[in-house]
Write a structure and sequence with these properties.
The structure holds two protein chains of two kinds.
Chain A lengths: L2 E10 L2 E11 L4 E6 L5 H8 L7 E6 L2 E2 L5 H4 L2 E5 L10 H8 L8 H11 L12 H12 L6 E5 L7 H14 L4 E5 L3 H5 L4 E6 L2 E7 H7 L1 E7 L13 E7 L2 E6 L4 H12 L2 E8 L2 H17 L1
Parallel strand pairs in A: 3-8, 3-9, 6-7, 7-8
Antiparallel strand pairs in A: 1-2, 1-4, 4-5, 9-10, 11-13, 11-14, 12-13
Helix pairs in contact in A: 4-5, 5-6
Chain B lengths: L1 H34 L6 H27 L17 H30 L4 H28 L4 H25 L15 H24 L2 H14 L8 H10 L11 E4 L15 E13 L3 E13 L5 E6 L11 E4 L3 E12 H7 L4 E21 L4 E4 L3 E7 L5 E9 L5 E8 L4 E2 L3 E4 L15 E9 L20 E22 L7 H7 L1
Antiparallel strand pairs in B: 1-2, 2-6, 3-4, 3-5, 3-7, 7-15, 8-9, 9-10, 10-14, 11-12, 11-13, 11-15
The chains are: A alpha/beta, B alpha+beta.
């Protein structure tokens, strides 16, 4: 595991931002941290990057305790954040000139390619760049040294679609070559590059899973019955977001198996006219699970 | 290499500010050089003072800006996720301060000293002393403050806050003492207050800077600074005795005062009254100070008197002078050594005097004294004199515009003399005018001149003619060509304490004439 977080807790005053958070990021994966605002995504990343100290628990990054991350590890980590404060009065080229010697593996060809791809003006001061351009600049400073780990904290926040696509292009090129840890709200954008996912809610990991497993076991099921549909009481625990309207029952099946589903529907609902099970988009997975989590919290 | 890269980046970013501060430092040196030993033209003095202040602020801005180029508080700074060793970052910032601030400062001070006529070695020593001092007590604290803030505005706000707290602490101390000024004020040990503040600032900086650069523990660092600020007024409420004990321990020649004694000497008789403050009564106590070495001066740094009534009740306990000022009690000076008789002025509140005037009282006086020994005697012409003296520096003389005073001005690279006596003498006849003491005792164990420049300066005017004709001077203007200015400089050699106990004394016997008249 390139990242291993164990029971991380972080308290800000009386607010518990992280409440025993644990997860593992396999090497070579593109790992997405997903959660609502305040779920603890950015705090988790800041703890991993040793920007803040955890109240308790521990994490290892590149095999090193996050509290002891040294320049040796930082030389292998690319980091991009929506709130990254780069030296605003420096020019793009000057800052790249400054950074280059700190990274032994810095590749000027990659740098030139990224600058060209992102159309970053070398003579422009960083504080004269737009928000999107600044994020591109951050990525341009994070990729040329071929990082072993690329950490992206809400990289698409506040970007127009064009810039988002350009950033995603840059990201796609990295996927597979490097481990990527990304936190984002833009689920549809990261869906195609994500290999693993962790759902965060109120400072804990609800679950983490490989995307392939997740998409395989979750289905949006639409059941057409002979008669009027009624939600079975109690509904199976693996069914989420259950709705009944007319003779149609819809739900998200979180343990989908085509054979078992047919048998169970027959047992619970009787005569079934038609079953339609479609893969669920990451956005729907997220909203369904988040809603379920919220309901469980409130109950 | 990393340190050098960061330093080069900061240099590239801040060169306009470096240039401005460098020019300001050299201009400051030129201004004080032009003003010379007489600080003329007068109109330029105010400008030079303001310019020195602006230069200091420029240094603050440069130090703070270079630290805040890589801000420490916060979690969003880009440098935090770069492979930059914190030790290299700190080293780069310190290197920058030394090179960009102290390089020009050292050169300007060195050039100032050499141009003013001092040798390279002594100019370099003074310039290095000032530079190290400035770094330790001024720039490192600024550095620490900058390391715990994000912007210059925050530093300015913090500085104002610190100043307000320290001033409030000092005022609370004065109020707690019933309105009495700080115990060290107007005494030779007043250096202890700025020294304590400087040490406190340095110690805080020494703790905060590594704490910030290694752990980025901003809350703890700010707590340390706040704690130090709250401690700052502490010295102003500390007792004189404890502070003078420290000063005693720092005496250069502790054994030099072993034979000196103070005794009550009624045989000296009464002395005429001098001016005394309203609502007070002065007693002029006859004293004999014995065991003095030749060419010595004894200064009374402070004397505390206790009056005890017939039944053992303390009637009064306080300083022997009500006013704030150095040497109000007495100063003893002798060339031949041995015994000196003098009157000590003791100012009592009128109510106290009224209470004790008809009864015998037991009197105890605790003296804190300093013995000075002669350092050098120098003479020079009264006009157009230009001499270079080891204890004084470079001195010049001239006639004032009214033609009744000889003005003497001295500049020295580094600290100036502690105490000198000046007079006009006629070497052919041996006559001398009354001496003018120029003593601003500073018993600090270090001799560095820090502000506004590397040179210390003193001026004095020696009168030889009274335009009204009321006073006649032994050395007057008739033989000016033959007249010399005589400068006698003294250095403190030992600080010591003595106690005088008078078992039974009627204060009315020694009250000033005016006070005695109203009583009897």
């Amino acid at each position: 595991m390139i990242i291993h977080a164990e029971n991380l807790r972080k308290r800000f005053g009386r607010f518990d931002a992280l409440q025993g958070l644990s997860f593992n990021v396999p090497e070579g994966s593109t790992f997405a941290l997903i959660g609502a605002n305040g779920a603890g995504k950015s705090t988790t990343i800041k703890v991993l990057m040793n920007l803040i100290e955890p109240t308790s628990g521990a994490a290892t990054v590149l095999g090193v305790n996050s509290r002891a991350i040294s320049p040796r590890e930082l030389a292998q980590i690319g980091y991009v954040s929506e709130n990254q404060d780069m030296p605003g009065r420096m020019r793009v080229s000057t800052y790249l000139d400054y950074l280059r010697p700190f990274y032994p593996s810095w590749d000027r060809m990659i740098e030139a390619a990224i600058l060209g791809q992102f159309r970053l003006p070398p003579e422009r001061r960083i504080n004269e760049l737009s928000h999107g351009m600044r994020l591109k600049m951050a990525l341009a400073c994070a990729l040329p040294f071929r990082p072993r780990l690329l950490v992206l904290d809400e990289p698409f926040s506040g970007l127009d679609p064009l810039v988002r696509d350009e950033l995603l292009d840059g990201l796609r090129q990295q996927a597979g070559q490097t481990t990527i840890l990304i936190s984002s709200h833009e689920l549809s954008e990261i869906e195609e590059v994500t290999t693993h996912i962790a759902f965060l809610d109120r400072g804990t990991v609800l679950f983490q899973e490989a995307m392939s497993d997740l998409t395989a076991r979750l289905r949006h099921v639409r059941v057409t019955l002979e008669g009027t549909a009624q939600i079975p009481m109690p509904a199976p625990s693996e069914w989420l977001d259950v709705h009944a309207e007319g003779n149609v029952l819809t739900f998200i099946d979180t343990r989908f198996s085509e054979r078992l589903l047919a048998e169970r529907l027959a047992a619970l609902l009787g005569s079934v006219r038609h079953i339609d099970a479609q893969p669920v988009a990451l956005r729907s997975i997220y909203t369904t699970l988040a809603r379920a989590a919220r309901n469980s919290w409130t109950s | 290499m990393t340190m050098w890269r960061i330093c080069r980046k900061d240099w590239g970013r801040l060169w306009p500010l470096i240039t401005i501060v460098t020019i300001a430092q050299f201009t400051n040196a030129v201004l004080w050089l032009v003003l010379g030993p007489f600080r003329e033209p007068r109109g330029l003095v105010t400008f030079a003072q303001l310019f020195a202040l602006a230069t200091s602020l420029g240094i603050v801005a440069l130090v703070a800006t270079v630290v805040q180029e890589d801000v420490l508080p916060g979690v969003s700074q880009d440098w935090l996720i770069r492979p930059i060793p914190r030790s290299d970052l700190l080293g780069a910032k310190l290197l920058f301060v030394v090179v960009a601030v102290h390089g020009p400062m050292l050169l300007a001070d060195l050039a100032h000293g050499i141009t003013a006529g001092f040798a390279f070695r002594e100019s370099l020593a003074a310039a290095l002393g000032r530079s190290v001092f400035m770094l330790l007590i001024f720039e490192l604290p600024v550095f620490a403050l900058a390391a715990t803030t994000r912007t210059l505005v925050q530093i300015a706000a913090a500085a104002v806050g610190i100043w307000l707290v320290v001033v409030a602490g000092v005022i609370i101390g004065i109020v707690a003492r019933g309105g009495a000024p700080p115990v060290f004020a107007a005494s030779g040990i007043q250096w202890m207050t700025p020294a304590f503040w400087s040490l406190l600032a340095l110690a805080t900086a020494a703790a905060v800077i590594p704490l910030q650069y290694v752990r980025r523990a901003t809350s703890q660092s700010r707590g340390l600074i706040a704690g130090a600020v709250l401690l700052a007024p502490l010295l102003s409420v500390s007792p004189w005795g404890a502070a003078f004990s420290v000063q005693r321990a720092l005496s250069p020649t502790p054994a030099a005062a072993q034979r000196i004694a103070i005794a009550f000497d009624p045989g000296l008789g009464r002395s005429p009254a001098g001016p005394i403050p309203a609502s007070t009564t002065a007693v002029l106590l006859p004293l004999r100070i014995s065991g003095l070495a030749p060419n010595s001066v004894v200064m009374n740094d402070r004397a505390e008197v206790r009056l005890v009534g017939p039944h053992g009740v303390t009637i009064f306990h306080g300083r022997t002078t009500a006013t704030l000022g150095y040497g109000d009690d007495f100063t003893v000076r002798t060339t031949s050594g041995g015994d000196v008789r003098t009157h000590q002025r003791i100012v009592l509140p009128e109510k106290v005097y009224e209470h004790v005037r008809t009864m015998p009282v037991h009197m105890e006086i605790d003296y804190s004294l300093t013995l000075f020994l002669i350092e050098a005697v120098n003479t020079m012409p009264v006009t157009n004199g230009d001499g270079r003296f080891s204890a004084l520096g470079r001195c010049a003389t001239k006639m004032d515009e009214e033609g009744d005073d000889i003005e003497v001005g001295c500049v020295n690279v580094g600290a100036g003399p502690t105490c000198i006596f000046l007079t006009l003498e006629d070497p052919t006849t041996g006559t001398r005018n009354p001496e003018t003491p120029l003593c601003d005792p500073d018993y600090a164990p270090y001799r560095v001149h820090v502000y506004p420049d590397v040179m210390s300066q003193l001026t004095s005017a020696l009168r030889f003619r009274d335009p009204q004709g009321l006073t006649r001077y032994p050395v007057d203007g008739l033989r000016l060509a033959a007249t010399r200015v005589r400068l006698t400089s003294y250095r403190p050699v030992v600080h010591f304490s003595r106690r005088l106990v008078i078992a039974d004394i009627h204060l009315s016997d020694w009250a000033t004439n005016a006070a005695a008249d109203t009583i009897h």
